[in-house]
């Protein structure tokens, strides 16, 4: 059994990720890549060239053109690595306070992230690498063999940073360090593009009160265990959570609503399956997942990960996060992997909740996945979830229906790309028509 070859370490500012990442890479003899240094290098060059940090277009153009190289240390002066920007050694420059003050906005620009993420993936593909950052497990290397997320209380992290500054012989005020740490946490976790959060399958380690040696020991143990063990110990916890969540949800729906479930016999017992449901309310996915006769993987909008309890539940469930307007390659790859393993994937073709309560024009993701993976689609129709809260407020049990339709088999993919595009459009229309057929007329909306 092989050991993890790509290791992703993410975490908050001063959670210890760079220190741990570098030490782990050294122990394993792997390449170490601190992706924060790349965002810093872009920021430093921008400041040097007098580019306005608020000028997104100029900063993006810079990120696309500047050549950043990170190599083993070239000078023995305590550096972990050497950073070159357009051939110039900027290893220490990128640690200056001006860079600290400006790197968060730079790293929030989607174009900057796109440019740097592309380079990071290229390095990741070579394997035998420990990559450290904010979005490595979630965006850059979602297929990493081992994902670690380090965190500690903000006070502990501020103390560490404060001590580091004093050790360098500089002056610093603890309260100021704490305030700036809070500000950076906020920017990193609330930005639109690739916000900081643990991947669903990351091992989360709270380093508060732990020494570097203690954290390293934990991380090394994970990195030395066979790939499948790391994944399955994660997977076991998840399976237990899913079973519990399912039983509890079934009970709650039965107690608190008048639910009618129809067509369960239409759900194929094995093989890959795409479950496509109309989307009226937040409760739709929990309802479908609780009553679908087979366990399923889900796709959820990444915005939801920022909602307090919902976000934690999604993480525990291990849903695949997707950005509202970006059904991108990473998501498609993960979805295809789920289907290739013969599992079930549930998602809403409309990609968002209907505002009117009736069907809206669907996105083409489901049809596209079905044609690419040759996975049948199970159309599912829901009614009543949009009125649940209003009824509960009046102490009434809302009436819900959940109908599983007959599976749709995708046609074999056409030979030209134009014909394939037509197939995707036709199949999308077919899925929505089949959902509409199972709905009362007032729910059919765009597919009346
Ligand atoms: O880890 P660090 O302090 O060197 O990171 C510098 C900045 O870059 C920080 O504001 C977060 C950002 N960053 C990011 O957005 N994505 C990464 N993968 C790494 C760093």
List the helices and strands and how they pair.
Layout: E1 6-11, H1 17-28, E2 31-34, H2 35-48, H3 56-65, E3 68-71, E4 82-85, E5 88-89, H4 97-108, H5 110-125, E6 129-133, H6 136-140, E7 146-151, H7 154-167, H8 174-190, E8 203-206, H9 212-224, H10 227-256, E9 258-262, E10 273-277, H11 284-291, E11 297-301, H12 308-317, E12 320-322, H13 329-340, E13 344-347, H14 365-373, E14 377-383, H15 388-393, E15 399-404, H16 417-437
Parallel strand pairs: 1-6, 1-7, 2-6, 7-8, 9-15, 10-13, 10-14, 11-12, 11-13
Antiparallel strand pairs: 3-4, 4-5, 14-15
Helix pairs in contact: 1-9, 2-4, 3-5, 7-8, 10-11, 14-16
The protein binds 2'-deoxycytidine-5'-monophosphate (DC).
Give a verbal description of the structure.
- It is a single chain.
- This protein folds into two domains: 6-230, P-loop containing nucleotide triphosphate hydrolases (Rossmann fold, 3-Layer(aba) Sandwich); 232-447, Glycerol-3-phosphate (1)-acyltransferase, CATH 3.40.1130.10.
- Strand 4 (82-85) and strand 5 (88-89) form a beta hairpin.
- Helix 7 packs across helix 8 (174-190).
- The protein is of the alpha/beta class and 448 residues long.
- Strands 9-15-14-10-13-11-12 form a seven-stranded mixed beta sheet, with helices on both faces. Strands 2-6-1-7-8 form a five-stranded parallel beta sheet, with helices on both faces.
- It has helices at 17-28, 35-48, 56-65, 97-108, 110-125, 136-140, 154-167, 174-190, 212-224, 227-256, 284-291, 308-317, 329-340, 365-373, 388-393, 417-437; strands at 6-11, 31-34, 68-71, 82-85, 88-89, 129-133, 146-151, 203-206, 258-262, 273-277, 297-301, 320-322, 344-347, 377-383, 399-404.
- It is 47% helix and 16% strand.
- The radius of gyration is 24 Å and the shape is elongated.
- 2'-deoxycytidine-5'-monophosphate binds at residues 13, 35-36, 39-40, 103-104, 107, 133-135, 184, 188.
């Amino acid at each position: 059994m092989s050991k993890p070859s790509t290791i992703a370490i993410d975490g908050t500012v001063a959670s210890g990720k760079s220190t741990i990442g570098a030490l782990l890479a050294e122990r394993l003899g792997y390449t170490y890549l601190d992706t924060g240094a790349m965002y810093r290098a872009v920021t430093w060059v921008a400041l040097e060239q007098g580019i306005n940090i608020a000028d997104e277009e100029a900063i993006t153009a810079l990120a696309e053109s500047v050549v950043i190289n990170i190599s083993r240390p070239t000078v023995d002066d305590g550096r972990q690595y050497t950073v070159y920007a357009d051939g110039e050694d900027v290893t220490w420059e990128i640690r200056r306070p001006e860079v600290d003050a400006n790197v968060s906005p730079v790293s929030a620009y989607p174009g900057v992230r796109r440019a740097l993420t592309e380079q990071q993936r290229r390095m990741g593909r070579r394997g035998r690498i420990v990559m450290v950052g904010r979005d490595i497990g979630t965006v850059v290397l979602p297929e990493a063999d081992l994902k670690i997320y380090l965190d500690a209380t903000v006070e502990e992290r501020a103390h560490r940073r404060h001590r580091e500054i004093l050790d360098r012989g500089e002056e610093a005020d603890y309260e100021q360090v704490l305030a700036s740490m809070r500000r950076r946490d906020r920017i990193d976790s609330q930005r639109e593009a690739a916000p900081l959060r643990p991947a669903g399958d990351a091992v989360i380690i709270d380093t508060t009160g732990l020494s570097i040696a203690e954290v390293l020991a934990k991380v090394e143990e994970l990195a030395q265990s066979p790939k499948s063990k790391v994944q399955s110990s994660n997977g076991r916890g998840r399976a237990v959570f899913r079973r519990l969540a399912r039983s509890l949800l079934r009970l709650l729906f039965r107690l608190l609503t008048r639910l009618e479930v129809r067509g369960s016999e239409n759900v194929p017992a094995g093989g890959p399956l795409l479950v496509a449901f109309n989307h009226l309310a937040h409760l739709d996915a929990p309802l479908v997942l609780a009553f679908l006769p087979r366990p399923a993987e889900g796709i959820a909008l990444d915005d939801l990960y920022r909602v307090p309890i919902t976000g934690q539940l999604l993480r525990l469930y291990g849903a695949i996060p997707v950005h509202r307007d970006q059904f991108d390659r990473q998501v498609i790859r993960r979805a295809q992997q789920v289907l290739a393993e013969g599992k079930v994937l549930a998602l809403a073709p409309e990609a968002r909740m209907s505002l009117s309560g009736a069907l809206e024009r669907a996105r083409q993701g489901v049809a596209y996945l079905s044609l690419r993976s040759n996975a049948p689609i199970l159309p599912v129709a829901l009614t009543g979830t949009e009125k649940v809260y209003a009824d509960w407020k009046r102490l009434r049990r809302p009436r819900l229906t959940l109908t599983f339709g007959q599976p749709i088999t995708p046609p074999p993919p056409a030979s030209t790309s134009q014909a394939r595009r037509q197939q995707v459009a036709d199949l999308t229309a077919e899925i929505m028509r089949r959902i509409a057929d199972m709905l009362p007329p007032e729910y059919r909306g765009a597919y009346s």
